[in-house]
Amino acid sequence: MAEQTEKINVTIDGKTIAVNPETTILNAARIIGGEVAPPAMCYYSSLEGSGGKCRTCLVEVSKGSEKDPRPMPDLVASCCTPVMDGMEVKNKTSERVNDARQGVVEFLLINHPLDCPICDQAGECHLQDLAFEHGLEKTRYEFKRRTFDKIDIGEYIKLHMTRCILCYRCVYTADQLTNKREHGVMKRGDAAEISTYIQNALDNDFIGNVIDVCPVGALTDKTFRFRSRVWYTKPMDAHRDCKKCSGRAVTWMIGDEIARITARKDQFGEVKEFICNECRFDKKEKTDWVIEGPRHIDRHSVISANKYEEPIPEHTPLLNKA
Amino acid sequence: MARKLLLENAHIEGIHTYDVYRKNGGYRSVEKALKSMSPEDVVEEVKKSGLRGRGGAGFPTGMKWGFIAKPEGVPRHLLCNADESEPGTFKDRYLMEKIPHLLIEGMIVSSFALGANHSYIYIRGEYMYVLRILETAIAEAYANGWLGKNIMGSGFNLDLSVSPGAGAYICGEETALIESLEGKRGNPRMKPPFPAVRGLWQRPTVVNNVETIAAVVPIVNEGGDAYAQIGIGRSTGTKLISAGGNINKPGVYEIEMNITVEEFIYSDTYCGGIKNGKKLKACVPGGSSVPILPHYLVSKTAAGQDRLMTYESLSDGGFATGSMLGSGGFIVYDEDQCIVRNTWNFTRFYHHESCGQCSPCREGTGWMEKVLHRLENGHGKIEDIDLLWDIQRKIEGNTICPLGDAAAWPVASAIRHFREEFAWHVKEPKACLERNYGLVADRTFETVTA
């Protein structure tokens, strides 16, 4: 089948690539890679239905297709707009896009507590990276920020809604990885909150993955909270025999001790193989795992500037600039 | 007296009952369509009529019907959008309350045209008493053989259900309506795919406004060409206008789309002039989300022509000097009304109704509301005006559904036309709490810039 489908051409920021029809602009840009790929806070390729919500991946379509070359009037969300043959897209090269993206980052931050110094996600936070790259230096918001109380959802997970950007990723994860739905969004508008059904505990073998998909510090690992800043830990690829999942994970080490375990994320911060709770929370002895070697953390994250590995120039352009 | 197509019989005693409605020529269009027309003929008549969606966007109905996908063996659906929640609009309620059978008749003919065998009326939760009126009428229609299996021996089956919302403005957006009808949270869907391809339960679906569906009845009865005779240009037929605000005779009026705005406001047939002999200050011609017009742009366009109650004339001049016909929620402001307060009130509504799915609308509407609240209460800063402009600019066009645009446009137009009044609120913080700015200066058209 794969050979029979004809590839179509799409040009993003002047770079042309041939992709399968039905590919979204975002995925085409990710194939090109580097600076061309728009940031995405809510889209998650392995979660069905995700995307379109955060609006950080907005791009300008300057030519609709070969057949209908008219540009699209509004900016479109690249994560859910399929490419057309001959389509021309502007991402970083478009003033409109940069302006709109700056606006989106500002909107995402006006109700965010900006408490990075005391947030566990700092250092591997997508919102932090996004604000660093696209945000304003100073906030223009002068009102009280939205706050919530912290909620324990289950034995292992802490929910701090104040930091949430309502990307819905954890909702889709809980919905699609687990068979009983008890986790969703309540209320609407800027009062909307992620919640469990009447503060139920989430106990499911795979529920720990909501921590990995959360782009900000709203869902954190209670077995790791406040133990260390992530950039003091060393990520190592590791695996073990697991009956429930692939057992392929990352162990984050402090010295010889395993501080925490996460799933493996690709260069866009997405988990491809979800791991089970047993691997994530219960197997914290070094003897439980076969350590493969240092894990390279791609792209933005400050972890990739860590001393354990030489930074790779193409993946950390902004850090090199500084 | 202008011709009425929808509300012609609305004054008749007991028209909401089946017997009276039938005696006054009701269900003629169903007889005509089912006995002598094919579904394609009905679609063709609607295309000829030039009918445009009455819910706000004004998209040609015939074209929308033409888009519906017709895969083999997949049921199609017609949904009636009765989730009328736009501030200033109350025409659908009036129509459903007075002549519920007209909507049911329209639903039967439209469902026949689209090949839908189960259609739904999604009604706003606050209209619970209207829902009961509709359910009574639907039961009468079933009892008399207009709904159910094999209607009039034509072999066409149709079930019609009414489903109430839970009071969310966002569920008037067609994909949010579909989600809500499916029993989910009323969040708009990403488009494409459009409902015409994958709508209710992933089946091809058409969503039309109450008035649009009701207008199909006179189109089938009298023919599309006759309907297209009424009105001017691409604005054909009659339109229900819900007139409100500082006028002598607020209410629902059916107009032919060829009268001037001036006639509509000042003629005794319609609004009957401004209340208490005051002067006109501003007008929102199509429900709260369309741009507000200052008095000097209400009766004349920027080009100096008479402004008519049509889709084209009201939007003449784009957003710089024009507005939109929208859903027909015609709100008139006299010289005693405060534009800042009005804008704040509208924004408060959009803040409350934002679904919270996409970030510009979720965060931006609340931010605008807070800034406007500050301005209105005399704590504003002069930079706030530019800040508001910048926020609305970053919301508009960057959201999933049109609610973001609807929240941005009233703010943009108020600043565009009434910037002095916003500045006055900053400069005179005490006075703005006690009295009103008054009439806006009659600026020349050249100074009106975006």
Description:
- The complex is a heterodimer of chains A (322) and B (450).
- Chain A contains seven helices and 14 strands.
- Chain A has 322 residues and is an alpha+beta fold.
- Chain A folds into three domains: 94 residues, Ubiquitin-like (UB roll) (Roll), CATH 3.10.20.740; 106 residues, Alpha-Beta Plaits (2-Layer Sandwich); 63 residues.
- In chain A, the strands form four sheets. In chain A, strands 2-1-5-3-4 form a five-stranded mixed beta sheet, sandwiched between helices. Chain A has a four-stranded antiparallel beta sheet with strand order 13-12-11-14.
- In chain A, α2 crosses α3.
- The C terminus of chain A is likely disordered.
- Chain B has 450 residues and is of the alpha/beta class.
- Chain B has three domains: 212 residues, NADH-ubiquinone oxidoreductase 51kDa subunit (Rossmann fold, 3-Layer(aba) Sandwich); 97 residues, Roll (Ubiquitin-like (UB roll)); 109 residues, Up-down Bundle (de novo design (two linked rop proteins)).
- In chain B, 42% of the residues lie in helices and 14% in strands.
- Chain B has 18 helices and twelve strands.
- In chain B, the strands form three sheets. In chain B, strands 3-4-2-1-5 form a five-stranded mixed beta sheet. Chain B has a five-stranded mixed beta sheet with strand order 9-8-12-10-11, covered by helices on one side.
- Chain B is globular, with a radius of gyration of 22 Å.
- The two termini of chain B are 39 Å apart.
- Chains A and B meet through α2 of A and α14, α15 and α16 of B.
